[in-house]
Amino acid sequence: MTASTPQRLRSFVTGQVELTRAVALALKSRPFNPYPYLKPFIERASGVREPPISATPHTVVYTRGSMRLLRYAAPRRRHRTPILFVYSLINRWYILDFLPGRSLIEHLTREGYDVYAIDWGVPGQDEERLTWDDLLGGLIQTAVRWTLRVSKSRELTLYGYCMGGTMALAYTSLYPEGVRNLVAQATPVDFSKGGLYTLWTSANHFDVDSLVDAYGNVPTPVLESGFLMAAPVQRLTRWLEVCRRIDDPEFVTTFLAMERWGADPVPFPGEVYRQYIKDCYQQNLFPQGLMEVGGERVDLRRIQCAILNVIAEHDTIALPAMSEPLPSLVSSKDCETRRYPVGHIGLSASSKGATKVWPSISAWIGARSKPMEP
Amino acid sequence: MSHPERPPPSQGLLARGLKLLGHLTHPDTRTGKVFTRAEEGLTRAAAKVTESPAYLRVSGSLMRQSFNARIRRNGLVEGALRTLRLPTTSEVENLRDQLRRMNDQVEALGTQLELVVDLLHRQEGVEPEPESPEPTPKERAPSKRRR
Question: HSE on the CB side for A257, CA within 13 Å?
């Protein structure tokens, strides 16, 4: 039986009202990202709704300020050594748990790892004065302790992604105890090779002091405008692909999930940003062992644990040239670089991730982790 | 695939319009070829502009001026609100943050208590109740918090 004309009319009017409301809401907050403006049209046309965020079951183990330590327990734990993810401060951690069946965290838990992830949350006023010392010696160190305590292990695998990799390296250099293995995924190390981002943040025309003094934390529109300017045309034209494949719910779901994550930046803690831009992008002190945190130099030569340097060959954010020097800067005897034909985000969310990247990384970690006692 | 009672949403006018737009801009079509050339040209132009020293100098100077203006304006507004004994915007935001964090702390406290109980059981030599291969803490549904 077909729907009656009044029913169809009512459905049509309701749909239009919902659409107008969603667009009006987006216009009110006026973000740079096209996602809030275009999402209602795609949802309406495809009938697909936004997927849930981080669908893998997890618990909150610890919180401090805006930071939360999340635990993703393995359904059947096989490794005593847990994995702790340190994600970047620029976007949200949930790209690591992207979609069911397409999630790095889910993959690792199924492989028998007890997985933990730091969610930096949404920095507020309390985080404006947070320093690198608070970040490494306070937040990450506490996260490491809680991870070891809850997983009943003495050592862990620290897994840093993007800027999180830089933080993980700095942390291991200052506090090597308890870090058995380190995975540095798409990690900027040599900031002189950062391409556009190195150019834009140059001290000649970028006054990071006035930005941090004006806002406290770096606001999301400032961060978003940087990413927008890096690929202004593609930011819009990539939506044409979803128009072509509007009949493919799987594609639409993946596309919306990816765009939603990209449109969900968080403010960057002001003082951490100030030092990051000055010491890393403007003076490139990090690879030279001259960056100081809490009065101590971050010397990568102090790192002796096993390291996996993961490079995305098509990365346009942390260019491969930024990560390549890592093995020559650390003292680890077991340091390996693996390259994958994907982009920056593709390492953790592409279809190739599940088939080519994650099994390879998981095998590397597995070979260096303690098994569960019988 | 069609359903007699409820046509799939992709059959709607909006879906057809979007598909047409996608088709017209597809690199295999004549219009798409023009569109692709225009896209490439715009990308090249944008890259040229964003890397030019003149653009960097001008945008850098404009940004610095706007940041400094904001610093002055914030100082004036917050000063005036304090004089009037009204809560400032940053104070209200701070309060909202504190409430959200308290919610997280309560959630974490549950997990931590489970851990403490588990440790106490061990110290007392009491065998904890048999459970799944994973010890504490028990799994819950994914947290709904996003912001």
Answer: 25
- Asked if A243 is an active-site residue, the reply is no
Given a contact cutoff of 8 angstroms between Cβ atoms, the answer to whether A286 and A69 are in contact is no
**Confidence tier at B134 by pLDDT (50, 70, 90):** very low
pTM score of the predicted model: 0.83
Measured CA to CA, the distance from residue A18 to residue A28 in angstroms comes to 15
CA distances from A151 to A72, A162, A350 (A): 11, 25, 29
**Any chain B CB within 8 A of the CB of A150?**
yes
Q: Which residue has the tokens 């993810």?
A: A85
How far is the CA of A32 from the CAs of A235, A252, A266, A290, B18, in angstroms?
A: 10, 21, 14, 36, 22
Contact of A202 with A282, CB cutoff 8 Å: yes
Low-confidence ranges of chain A (pLDDT < 50): 1
- Report the pLDDT value the prediction gives residue A73, as an integer from 0 to 100: 96
Mode of pairing for the β-strands spanning A83-86 and A115-119: parallel
Give per-residue pLDDT as tens, A277-328.
999 999 999 999 999 999 999 999 999 999 999 999 999 999 999 999 999 9
Residue partners of B115: CB distance under 8 A and separation at least 6: A149, A150, B136, B137
3-state secondary structure A160-172: EECHHHHHHHHHH
Using the beta-carbon criterion (under 8 Å), do A61 and B25 form an inter-chain contact? no
Please state, as a whole number, how many other Cβ atoms lie within 10 Å of the Cβ of residue A27.
11
A248 belongs to the catalytic site: no
Instruction: Provide the residue count of chain A.
Output: 374
Partner residues linked to A117 by β-bridges: A70, A85
What is d(CA A303, CA A314) in angstroms, rounded to the nearest whole number? Answer: 28
